[in-house]
Write the structure tokens for this entry.
Amino acid sequence: MNNKVGIFWFAANTLVFKTQNACDLQPDRLGFVDSTLQHQIEWEENLIFEHFALALHHTDYYHFPRGRIVFNTKLQTSFIYLDKKLFKKRIVDAIQVNFSLVHTKVKFFTDPHYNCFNSF
């Protein structure tokens, strides 16, 4: 299994993301492997957007549509939680490629936690 878990945003027409290998993390008692990454810390403290050549200083982590990927070991399926605005083929394809999910079963979920209220 080389599936990845982690977090992402879609900002300035760019998929900004940080991954961890699912096999390096322990599943919880329900069989879910989740990343230890946090959107707020990666955006506001680690300035993840700089790794993607984006000058987005003075923006909050919740300013852009975002999401998280977890892996269910029991179902051998990646669960992609994302803002509903990101349900576009090119964005979904980019997420699957960058998280090594092209040949993996995936399920998509919207979650109010990832809602972005800015225009997209």
Q: What stands out?
A: The mean pLDDT is 92. The chain has two helices and six strands.
